[in-house]
Amino acid sequence: MGVGGNRSLYKKKTPKSGLLSKKTIRHPRYNPASKDNDIMLIKLLIPANFNKDVQPLDLPTSCPSPGDECVISGWGTTKSPQLYFPPVLHCGNITILSQEKCRSIYPRYYTDNMLCAGVLEGGIDSCQGDSGGPLVCNGKLQGIVSWGTQTCALPNKPGVYVAICKYINWIRETMNNN
């Protein structure tokens, strides 16, 4: 079950804030070892009700550029490597890094289907429990939280995200076929 429009996990705004899934569709080339193609679509049982707190995000028409400012949000741990999951939604401002920089930081697993973003000085990052959450740049869903280091928000260790721009055709085809 998903949650829409709630900033707190323990205070429900309305009884209809829960979103039940009818079907999940994992990318056919997902590789759990490398995390390549770490994307899944969820078909809801009933359409979400849009209101002032629940709005759709636009898909991008191009990939983000290095230096683009983005926002991450989630209920993941705020103390790393300890685990403390806050009851309220947290957000952070981070920056897109170049593909070359990301490859140099993570040479073993980083692929062209990924992007990395963060604050190179450390202190702001997505973390355990944020996986699957949004990376929003200029009002567009540019990434999905995928993976990073065991200890989050370290200097020179940005988070790694699924690059949505690489999957637009798959997303549209999958939605049309389902």
Could you explain the architecture of this structure?
The chain is mostly beta strands. The protein has two domains: 2-55 and 167-177, Thrombin, subunit H, CATH 2.40.10; 69-166, Beta Barrel (Thrombin, subunit H). Helix content is 10%, strand content 28%. It has two helices and ten strands. The protein has helices at residues 99-105, 168-177, and strands spanning 2-3, 18-19, 21-26, 40-44, 69-74, 90-96, 114-118, 134-137, 140-147, 159-163. It has a six-stranded antiparallel beta barrel with strand order 5-6-7-10-9-8.
| Helix/strand class | mainly beta
N-to-C SSE string, H for helix and E for strand? EEEEEEHEEEEH
Radius of gyration computed on alpha carbons? 16 Å
* Strand arrangement across the biggest beta sheet: 5-6-7-10-9-8
CATH architecture group name of the largest domain: Beta Barrel
In what range is the share of β-strand residues? 25-35%
Domain Peptidase S1: 1-176
Family: Belongs to the peptidase S1 family. Snake venom subfamily.
Protein name: Peptidase S1 domain-containing protein
GO molecular function: serine-type endopeptidase activity
Features:
178 residues, mainly beta, Thrombin, subunit H, 2 domains, two-stranded antiparallel sheet, 28% strand, globular, hydrolase, serine-type endopeptidase activity, serine protease, Peptidase_S1A, Peptidase S1 domain-containing protein
